[in-house]
Here is the input.
Amino acid sequence: MNKPPLILTNILMFTITGLIALVAVPLEAFNNGFDWVEISACIFLIYFSGMSITAGYHRLWSHKAYEANGFVRGVLAVGGALALQNSILHWASDHRIHHKHVDQNGKDPYSAKNGFWFSHIGWMLREYQHHRYDDYENCRDLQKDKIVMWQHKHYLAIMLGVNFGIPILLGWLNGDVLGMVLLAGVFRLVFVHHSTFFINSLAHIWGKQPYTDKNTARDNGILAFFTFGEGYHNFHHIFEYDYRNGIKWYQFDPTKWLIRSLSTIGWTKNLRRCPEERIEKAKVAMQLQKVKEQVSSLPDAEEMLTKLQHEYDLLMHRMAEYYAAKKQLMDAKRQELKLGYDKLELAAKYKELKASLAEQKSNWTKAYQLELQFAR
Ligand SMILES: [Zn+2]
Ligand SMILES: [Zn+2]
Here is the structure.
């Protein structure tokens, strides 16, 4: 079968930036070194552009896991252009197809079943998806977002503006344009590129599958560290509308922390979480399946499996009871809170009425005594 034509722009861009990051940056470090301003700017821009992809392109726009105000969306749209991964509309369209047809070669744009190279970067080097480059049917909702459409329309200008403008300006202010462009410009770009690409490649190859094995996605704490929390990809593929990828408090997910922090000042809202009960059930069902596979070859397999199934059924039963009770308790607490509030309101009203009654009583006494005086 003939392969689709190569995309020269992408090949050149990845090759040139990659070579600069691998050769020119270490040479510059060796010859002139980088100062703390350049290093800080690089780290800051890695987080800014990387998390514009994870918090913006991915969790906000592709999955609608939460809502954000215009200012946050604007900042994420500019940061996403800095990451040089195409427009929000295009990225989200690809990503929604990835979730819908995950692992199906020919449909999933970066199917992991096509191997590491293809899912990492190969899918962008040839015209595999040419037929749908102007078709954003699966992102009609995003086409109503003015910031998404503004970024899509002016993507090239914004992307070039920030990628050249920010490092050159910072370098000029710091007195060394070349050093800043190399580190905070090119090295930063290549680092964030591959950190995002690892989610499509490594996060579908390396790690555990605690929630589902219906697709290749894996949970991997090491990868989470380099991908702003997106390494918990097995959880993500089963509960994609959850604004978190690492659901435990100790799991490294700075994207989740950012979204939650912004919600405390009202800049983000309606953060979606999958009910704990469904997460727990998926995890236990997966454990049962794994142990069944292991036990099935043993001589007394049947007896063991019966016992296991019995324990599992009991666990499901207890879990349902527990979560029903938990919900009742939460409802009761909410009711109590409302009652408490009503009581407070009533008490305030009572106090107010008491005061106005006392006032009126004294007014009455005065009027009454005055009348009495006249009557005499
Ligand atoms: Zn994936
Ligand atoms: Zn996703």
Notes: The pocket of zinc ion (ligand 2) is lined by residues 58, 62-63, 95, 99, 236, 240 (CB under 6 Å). The chain has a mean pLDDT of 94.
